[in-house]
Amino acid sequence: MASIINRVLYKENLKRFEQIRAAATDFSTYYVGRNIIQDDIFIVIENYARTKEMPLEWLRFPIKDKELCACAFIRGGRIFVMLNSGIPMSKQIFAAAHELYHIRCFLEDNDTELAKSGSILDSKTIDAETTKKEEMEANAFAGILLVPVEALEQQIRIYQIDKSSIQIEDVLTLMEIFAVPYKAMVLRLMEEQILSDDLAEKMIEVPIPEIRRRMEITGKAKRWDMIPTGYEKFGSLLENLTINTENESLPESRLKSDWAKLEEIKKKYGIE
Questions:
Q1: How far apart are CA 124 and CA 50, in angstroms?
Q2: Is 11 helix (H, G, I), strand (E, B) or coil?
């Protein structure tokens, strides 16, 4: 089996990677600025859809299948993005940025794939274990957007990281700053030729339990590896229910039924 580092867009098609870099940089210029995004990615996506006059709704709740990270689809003239809130925050952030690429292709490039069949993102794809061209492109876009090269170089300088001798603790420091998963951070360092191919491959082969042990010892990037609560969303359901209740827009029996249905959904997914 080919190494993971040889199955990323940077290695598969450097010309296309540079095109994706340009697209991510342009997007960042218009919708992000010089900020390091972290978990602001959700607001960035909402604002992007708003500027394109395209309604977007988040469906964000924990599901049992940890392999399913996210999906996006178009229904009734609206973009829906489902995020599994039962996975670590860094994966949620990367998954959102990944789905942003598919949304951008739909809104900017008239790519009809999202409208026809939607997008489904699994954990293996986030870990760069994919051979699908569009998924490689989405991963590349997400990585560049979340870890732009100028900010990466700046933070390496600020934290006095020796580029000639990158250690796992250095990767954890950068993960703490950019809020991306471990493998995504290693691959970004490789893409910018800060890590050699050989060292990147060795770092990727380090077992995740060992990475988490280092997080516990150093405290670095630990917060992004946690599974947060309190961020669950069911699209505009709660907002609409509240408005309908306050305005008495529906019969009382219907409102009671709708509120009971929402509580049933929350109970199903263990949401307080």
A1: 31
A2: helix
Calculate helix-pair angle for 208-218, 168-178, nearest 10 degrees: 80
Cβ neighbours, 10 Å, residue 169: 13
pLDDT in tens, the chain (272 residues): 357 888 899 999 999 999 999 999 999 999 999 889 999 999 999 999 999 999 999 989 898 888 999 999 998 889 999 999 999 999 999 999 999 999 999 999 887 888 888 899 999 999 888 889 999 999 999 999 999 999 999 999 999 999 999 999 999 999 999 999 999 999 999 999 999 999 999 999 999 999 999 999 999 999 999 998 888 887 666 666 676 677 667 677 776 776 776 666 666 666 65
DSSP 8-state code for residue 14: H
User: Do residues 114 and 80 touch, judged by C-beta distance below 8 A?
Assistant: no
Token representation of residue 44: 């960035």
Identify which of 34, 95, 44 has the alpha carbon closest to the alpha carbon of residue 66: 95
Query: Which structure tokens are listed for 58?
Result: 């988040």
- CB 172 within 8 Å of CB 215: yes
Instruction: Say which amino acid occupies 185.
Output: M
> How would you classify the pairing of strands 119-122 and 233-234?
unpaired
